Structures are given as structure tokens and as C-alpha cells.
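Run log // design_07
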């Protein structure tokens, strides 16, 4: 039974997704096809007659239906999905005076079964049966298309018939070839397609490495889209059956529907996330999500439904997917950098398809550009989308780096005293407590100094708070320069500073303290007017030499007692607790 009647829609989908490699307007003729003596390729698609066998008649019955064959363009069967058997009659006349071997090529590789018969003495003589329902190795001529050998006698007329059964869309572009010309053309064809599939494979590998490195799901959807599209194209070109699964006809017959749904699913999944539709177009995002859930379920249909039904369902899914792509392009247009890449990529692909369609209907000359325009379009599309994805990831990375820097800056503001740039009390206590705990485990000495600027109130009262702040910064720099390699330096509050010295006992710590006191005695604090002030400091020192400390606050308490003692006994000196 034929599928839905909207053949124009089917032909459009074939054009868009199969990227027609061959098609042209047909003209019927019932006359015999004369094979010239000099031949390279002779397109006979418009010279064929056809009989559509809905009842699956025998060969003998078909012989009695010879008068019911009609020109193929009148039958209008292109794009049909039917369980009928199609019989194509090919009457040939040789104009040469010698026996000649030619090739008959059917440029529709994924037909289920094609049998070539010769009509001899009013009887069918089967020459060969090939197709997707049979292993690839069964073919006499190993080629991605369906190719048969013809042996023509000199100055005679011969009639051949093709018995075609298809579980997908019916098309029958037929050419007669000289073997040498066929070989040369096949070399050119293989080279061009090698470039196409090589680039597609390179894009898959390249983006796979990026995905493994960045763990960005946009890359995953993009890779799955390219993989599905490349395999779908290889099915239509016949290379998948030739190189990948020629020994598995069951899967070969179902692979077309499977990868149409696969490509539709991940093209929309990629578009949805790449363009951030959840934020930019919430309603469209919701509808696409629902449709993608249906696609995820439909991807198993080729394995549970008949091949024809699965083909029809996949075609409908592809149609809806294309409509969604168009709606997305119209919705986002040029509202963001991603949308510019997206619209440009699909527009270039559409241009390629339109060029091919115009050439098919002879509106443009059929040359290498128009013939391979869809493949060129998809290569450009894949590259543009890849550039767009790379651009987006780069911007996301820069945004994350900026965010990280902002966080680090905020953390620094939170950790450090804004005036002296030393650790504030909170972070000093956290860092020194952690260090003390590790020292207790490893039984290492530690010391803590509490430092106070002597007579600091007099400086504020005499010179003002601005000079007072400069004096605090001056002392802080002196302490940091001496102690930074020995431990943790912080501002405890006001004119007081605190230093936690790791792996130093009270003897080594007292040497550092005396060095600090002497440095302040001999290093004047210079004022802006050229005058100088000699600042002195008092230090209270506490070490775990004399007792074990579990908490830093205990050491601070004892160091504070020592500092109080030093200040009460004349200042400008060190006092050691214990």
C-alpha cells in the first residue's frame, strides 16, 4: 500500500536530507534505446517504461502484461513507499558490429531487492539479484550503487527488465556505461566523497577531543549530530552498506530510518542548548523538548515496526525537525553571537540544496558545483557551527575566568586588612590554628609574637590620623619583610600585629624579635615634609617550648601577658612568656 499522498513533501525531505546526487526532468519514449558505438555514459532514465505490480505476479504473468507498461514519467512513482513490485523495461539496440560488454548502473543504492532479467525467446532469464536485503558480498560487481553487467551482441536488439522491490522511497535513475568510463568516473566520485567523509570524520574526532577536555555537553550533542548526519549520508551514498554493514542486511534495511530520527533528535538537542532556548525562547524550548522525547522513543521504531512504516514515521519526524529548525532560525535571527553562527550555517546548507534542486530541474547547469552543492553546504555548515561552538566555549571560559578572578579578589578583600595588606584577624587565626594542629602532630616547635607600636596615641594626636595610618603601614612592611619567610603575619587590630612562627622555638623566635626591635630603632619613618620619626615597638613572645598549646588563642593570651609586661617595663623591648 502506498504511503501518504503528500509526495511533494516527501520529495522535499529527500532533497533536503538525501541531498540529491542525481535527478532530472524525464521524457517518455517507447522506442528502443540505441547504444552508440562511442559511449561513456548514457542516461536512460527518461526512456524507460514501467509496470506497477500490486499483486506480486509471476514472471510468466508479467510477460502477458507487456502492453500495460507505461512511460515512467506518466506513472509518477518517484517518492512512493509501497509494497508493490516495480518492473522497468529497458529495450536496447546495438549499433556496433562487435560484441560489447557494458554496465547498467541503478543510482539508488538502498533499494531492498533488484533483479536483472533478459528477455530471450519470450522467456525471462535471471541475470543477478542484488540489494540491501542481500549480503554485499553476493554482488558480482562490488560497488556502492547497484551495478549489473550487460553483454550485448552486435547489431541486435535486446530487452532487459529490472524487478525492483523497495522498503523506502522509490527512485530509478538508470545509466548505461562503458566500463572504462565508469571506472574513471568512479575514481573521481570516490575521491570527492573521500574528501567529504574525511572532513566529517576529522570534525567528529576534533570535537570529541574538545568534549573530553572541556566536558561541555554542547560538544556532545554536536558530535552525535555530526555522527548521525555522516552515517545517514553514507547510507544514501551506499558506502555504509559497502564498508560497514554489508553482511547484515537486517540492520542495513533499518539503518536509514534509525539515523534519520537520530539526526533529527540531536540536531534539535544541539540547537536547543547552543542557542539557550530555555532562556531566550521558553515556549519553543518546551515544545522542542516534548518533540525530542517523542524522537527518543521513536528511535526504536525501526526495530519493532515494518520497514515501510518506520520510513514513513522517520520522514514525518524529519519534516517536523526541519520546521523546528526554520522556526528557531526565525525566532533567534541575529539576537546573539550564537544565533548568527546558527542562521549562517543553516542558510549556507539551504543554498547548497537549492542549487542542487535548480540543477535537477535544469534551471541551472548540472556541473560539479551544483551536483555537489549540498555536500559542500553541509561541510560549510558543520565548520561554521563548530566555529560558533568554539566561540561560545571561549566566551564561557573567559566569563568563568573573570568570575574566578572576581571571586579571588573578593576573597582577598575578605582575607586581608585593607590598610596593611596583611591577613586580618579572622584568617590569621584560621591559618595559624591549622599550622599549630599540624605542628602538634609532628611534635615541632612554634612561636607566636604579639607586637605593639609604642606611644602610638601620641603620633595620632601630634601628626593626625593620616600620618598615623602611614606609620601603621610602615611598621607592617617592616614586620612582613623580616617574618614572611618564617610564618604567618597579620594585623591583630589598631596598632597591634601578630606573627605565628612555624618550626621556631623561643630562642630562634627571640632572635627575630630582637632584629625587629633593632630595625625600628635604626630605621626612621619619613614624613612628607622631610622630617622623620623613630618608632619603637614592644613584643610579647610565647612558644610551645615550655608547655603544649592546643589552641592559638591560648598562645595569644600568654603572648599578650608578655607584651603587657614589656610595655609596663619601659617599652622598646621583648618579653618572653614562661
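design_07 sequence
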Amino acid at each position: 500500500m502506498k504511503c501518504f499522498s503528500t509526495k511533494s513533501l516527501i520529495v522535499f525531505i529527500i532533497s533536503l536530507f538525501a541531498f540529491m546526487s542525481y535527478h532530472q526532468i524525464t521524457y517518455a519514449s517507447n522506442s528502443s534505446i540505441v547504444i552508440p558505438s562511442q559511449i561513456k555514459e548514457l542516461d536512460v532514465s527518461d526512456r524507460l517504461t514501467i509496470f506497477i505490480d500490486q499483486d506480486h505476479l509471476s514472471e510468466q504473468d508479467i510477460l502477458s502484461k507487456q502492453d500495460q507498461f507505461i512511460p515512467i514519467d506518466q506513472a509518477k512513482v518517484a517518492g512512493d513507499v509501497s509494497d508493490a513490485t516495480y518492473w522497468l523495461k529497458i529495450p536496447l539496440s546495438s549499433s556496433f558490429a562487435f560484441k560489447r560488454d557494458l554496465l547498467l548502473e541503478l543510482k539508488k543504492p538502498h533499494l531492498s531487492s533488484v533483479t536483472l532479467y533478459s528477455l530471450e525467446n519470450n522467456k525471462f532469464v535471471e541475470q543477478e539479484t542484488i540489494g540491501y536485503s542481500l549480503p554485499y558480498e553476493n554482488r558480482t560487481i562490488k560497488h556502492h550503487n547497484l551495478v549489473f553487467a550487460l553483454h550485448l551482441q552486435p547489431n541486435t536488439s535486446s530487452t532487459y527488465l529490472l524487478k525492483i522491490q523497495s522498503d523506502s522511497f522509490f527512485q530509478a535513475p538508470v545509466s548505461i556505461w562503458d566500463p572504462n568510463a565508469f571506472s574513471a568516473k568512479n575514481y573521481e566520485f570516490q575521491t570527492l566523497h573521500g574528501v567529504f567523509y574525511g572532513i566529517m570524520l576529522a570534525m567528529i574526532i576534533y570535537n570529541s577531543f574538545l568534549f573530553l577536555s572541556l566536558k561541555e555537553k554542547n560538544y556532545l550533542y554536536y558530535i552525535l549530530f555530526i555522527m548521525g548526519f555522516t552515517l545517514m549520508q553514507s547510507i544514501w551514498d551506499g558506502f555504509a552498506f559497502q564498508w560497514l554493514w554489508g553482511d547484515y542486511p537486517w540492520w542495513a534495511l533499518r539503518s536509514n530510518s534509525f539515523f534519520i530520527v537520530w539526526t533529527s533528535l540531536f540536531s534539535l538537542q544541539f540547537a536547543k542548548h547552543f542557542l539557550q532556548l530555555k532562556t531566550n525562547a521558553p515556549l519553543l524550548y518546551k515544545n522542542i523538548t516534548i518533540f525530542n522525547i517523542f524522537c527518543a522513543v521513536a528511535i526504536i521504531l525501526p526495530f519493532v515496526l515494518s520497514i515501510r512504516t518506520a520510513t514513513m514515521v522517520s520522514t514525518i519526524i524529519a519534516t517536523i525537525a526541519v520546521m523546528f529548525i526554520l522556526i528557531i532560525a526565525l525566532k533567534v535571527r541575529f539576537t546573539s553571537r550564537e544565533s548568527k553562527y546558527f542562521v549562517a550555517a543553516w542558510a549556507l546548507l539551504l543554498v547548497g540544496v537549492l542549487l542542487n534542486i535548480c540543477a535537477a530541474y535544469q534551471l541551472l547547469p548540472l556541473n560539479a558545483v551544483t551536483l555537489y552543492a549540498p555536500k559542500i553546504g553541509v561541510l560549510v555548515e558543520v565548520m561554521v557551527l563548530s566555529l560558533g561552538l568554539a566561540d561560545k566555549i571561549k566566551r564561557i571560559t573567559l566569563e568563568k575566568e573573570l568570575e574566578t578572578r572576581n571571586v579571588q579578589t573578593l576573597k582577598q578583600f575578605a582575607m586581608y586588612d585593607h590598610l596593611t595588606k596583611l591577613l586580618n584577624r579572622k584568617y590569621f587565626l584560621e591559618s595559624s590554628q591549622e599550622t599549630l594542629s599540624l605542628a602538634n602532630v609532628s611534635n615541632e616547635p612554634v612561636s607566636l609574637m604579639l607586637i605593639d607600636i609604642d606611644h602610638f596615641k601620641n603620633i595620632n594626636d601630634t601628626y593626625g590620623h593620616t600620618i598615623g595610618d602611614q606609620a601603621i603601614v610602615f611598621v607592617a612592611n617592616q614586620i612582613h619583610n623580616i617574618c614572611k619567610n618564617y610564618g604567618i603575619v597579620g594585623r591583630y587590630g589598631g596598632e597591634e600585629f601578630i606573627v605565628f612562627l612555624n618550626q621556631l622555638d623561643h630562642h630562634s623566635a627571640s632572635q627575630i624579635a630582637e632584629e625587629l626591635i633593632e630595625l625600628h630603632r635604626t630605621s626612621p619613618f619619613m614624613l612628607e615634609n622631610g622630617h622623620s620619626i623613630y618608632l619603637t615597638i614592644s613584643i610579647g613572645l610565647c612558644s610551645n617550648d615550655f608547655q603544649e598549646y592546643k589552641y592559638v588563642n591560648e598562645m595569644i593570651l600568654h603572648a599578650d601577658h608578655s607584651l603587657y609586661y614589656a610595655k609596663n617595663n619601659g617599652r622598646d623591648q621583648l618579653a618572653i612568656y614562661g
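Confidence is low (pLDDT under 50) at residues 1-29.
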